[in-house]
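REVIEWER CHECKLIST
Item 1: Sequence provided? yes
Item 2: Single chain? yes
Item 3: Sequence as submitted:
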Amino acid sequence: MENSNKRPLEDECQYLHTETKKPKASQVASTTLHPKSSKETASIEDLCDDIIVYLYKFLSHDNLAKMALVSPNLFRISNDWTLWKKPKFEQFDKSMEYIYLGYLKNTTTEIRISYDDVQSPDHSVSHNFLMQLEAMCPELEHLTLRNQIFDANEINVRVLHRKLKSLTIDNTTIENIPDSSSYLCGINNSCPDLEKIIMTNNDWFLPNCLYALAKLERLSYLSLAGCKQFKDCIPYASITAITGFKSLHTLDLRFTPISDHELVCFQRLTSLKSVLLESPSYMNHERDATITDLGLAGFCTVAFEFHYPYIQILIDRRGGVNLRRVQDRHGDLNRCSIETLCVRNYPKVTDAFLKTAARNCPHLKSLDITGSCCTLEEIEYYKASRPRTKGLEVDAFFIFYFWSFLDDALLAINLFH
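Item 4: Structure as written out by the authors:
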């Protein structure tokens, strides 16, 4: 039986009082003269409930679940609803899933599941666990899955919680994805309220996945950083920019091998305000298609005149793309009014882009072109022309000039010898 003198955890307004007698002076003296033996130790269960709950907040929730197995009293305290509002399972163990589920509350709004930096089936979430989340956590809005291994035949977007507003799948392997469709096909029906999606460092993310994400009407933030297979996706980038992504505000494509061709397509998203780009280390800017002044120039105009053959893009049920020239077309095309632009480590970005941005891009609030070929003189001119634009710090460009100087110095030494 639990101690009836302890304050109930879930009702902070109720206190149970017991009568206490004032100790006699002789008793106080006796306590003072005869202290407890130094060999006697206190247990964590000797602490009051509030202190134990406070200490529990410093544990990951998988460790908290293990602590609760020590005694019935610690189990009772570990069930406090404030501890399970946003559980983080940093060392997820599939064999303990039934215990984790027992702790989840109807007030749980966020769940994070990961296991170090190593992927293992024994530390990956199961189909049964994800299926029960909607019943156990009706208010769940944020779900993070990191370093997991899934079988597409068992775990797909149909098992996700319908009320999710943000979904993160990072560094995850998905096996047995059918060739006939993308893994994310139907996500707009399974999770129609999604506003933020982070799909980072996933080699399974192919260009056809973009078509599924474009159907999410409330999506405002999309990160595909580190997805190496997201390349040569002009047809999908073009069709999704025309038909989807109506609310997209931020697009993070850092460390993806995209080029000017895809970038021009995304510039048609009139709601887009922030674009983050950074070259992956394996990219060869002399040989591969890359980002240049030409691709970035589209961010510096709100509209432009065009004259090119009108191409009809058809996507079949299997994700195949067919292009067909229809007719020559003339007209005006609206573009996004970008406010934040990060373009790091692209050597084919030069002073030409800065001159265009200084002249035609008054709405730009933050600009980062670290690792470009822009000269210090042009950077200073841009800062003088657009003093409200942040991010153009001179120190950020010394790295590029240092390496250029070092290369020239080594070349001179070799010629001298």
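Item 5: Key structural point noted by reviewer: The radius of gyration is 29 Å.
Item 6: Recommendation: ____
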